[in-house]
Design a protein that fits this description.
By secondary structure, the chain is an alpha/beta fold. 56% of the residues lie in helices and 14% in strands.
Length: 139
């Protein structure tokens, strides 16, 4: 399974994004579920609405409704994990959304993350399941 961050999903919707084609190929070529943590949904909605318009945001929500992406609701343990991670990486100013992506990946036992945010995810580097694999960069 692949846990999705905001930038990876945004690139799927923005044909002008330099990562659009790579993100599209990943989505179309994998049979693995694409997991979207709930905090990512709010951030994706904001960026799609702001930069691509309401139709793009509605398309994303329709994809969630139809099951193209699997929505993951955070658990209490995930919040604890986020707190510890954000505290550990205070100098990085790791945000809650990125921490939630890492928490969900940890809980689900996957190392694979769809993201364009190399700074934060490379700094964290791994979870208990091994080194993180960042798509599309690590393809």
């Amino acid at each position: 399974m692949i846990v999705a961050d905001t930038g990876g999903i945004y690139a799927l919707y923005d044909a002008g994004d330099r990562h659009h084609e790579a993100a599209r190929i990943i989505l179309e070529s994998t049979s693995e579920p694409l997991i979207v943590p709930l905090p990512v949904v709010a951030e994706v909605d904001y960026f799609l609405t702001r930069y691509l318009g309401v139709d793009a945001a509605l398309d994303f929500l329709d994809s969630l409704r139809s099951g193209a992406f699997a929505l993951d609701h955070l658990k209490t343990g995930d919040l604890d994990f986020c707190y510890k991670l954000i505290k550990q990486y205070q100098d990085l100013a790791l945000g809650f959304v990125d921490a939630s992506v890492l928490a969900v990946a940890e809980r689900l036992g996957t190392r694979t993350i769809l993201t364009l945010d190399h700074r934060d995810f490379r700094a964290v580097g791994s979870n208990s399941h091994g080194p993180l694999v960042l798509y599309p960069a690590d393809l």
